[in-house]
Amino acid sequence: MKQPLDCLVIGAGPAGLTAAIYLARFHFSIAILDAGHSRAAMIPRTHNHAGYPGGIAGTELLGLMRDQAAEFGAVVIEGLIEGLERTEEGFVARAQGGEWSARTVLLCTGVVNNRPQIAPDIHDAALRRGLLRYCPICDGYEVTDKRVGVLGTGSHGFKEAIFLRMYTKDVTLIATDGEHDLTDDEKLRLAMAGVVLIDGPCAPLRTKNDQVVVPTPRGELEFDSVYPALGSVIRSELATAIGAEGTSDGKRPPSGVLRHFGLALMDLR
Asked: pTM for the complete prediction?
């Protein structure tokens, strides 16, 4: 009977590929399964990844990481894992046309951004051009001194608007559906920072020349870049399906839960 793998890595984004490189160099037997949905592939050009002066496209970065993993025998297998089960020896993962047994599983399945209301083709084109952005930590530098719109409200929208304020003085926080849901303290801090508040609704978005057009009850507003602060969907289904507990938002299991279920092989230091 075929021996189970030491570790099955599910997801071949930057996290999964980094883990795979380390695990392969530890001489562990591993396999990497990927459904081809890495958010990194959407990055037109990242400028904050060390070692790449001038930046690098997300797809190129993923390709180079795959090549590096392959140097140590870690080759990515294309496929969507449809089921994960516990066994006496560890885990069995199933995808269309394949089955893998492993003593441990490392989930690097990431998240899916909640998108604003915008036509899919316009969304993708705007993303490539930097008119629509999802990660101010990654690319806030690129909107320095530009006119920026943030779509959202509540604590998430508040925090993103305040964070972006350190890059530019021109930040507008727009609620997507109606009136803003902000505390008095949040409104005060936004006002002190010079962030403009606009109630919604604000859909659908469109582009015009080099700007994003956001319709609002106050009229159409134009921005150099727009950041949707609408949260994300966590791809935690495989973990919860085998009994791992999650927090109310599904973002992260309580401390120790993944390790208890054997999903984390080790701390990579």
From this structure: 0.86
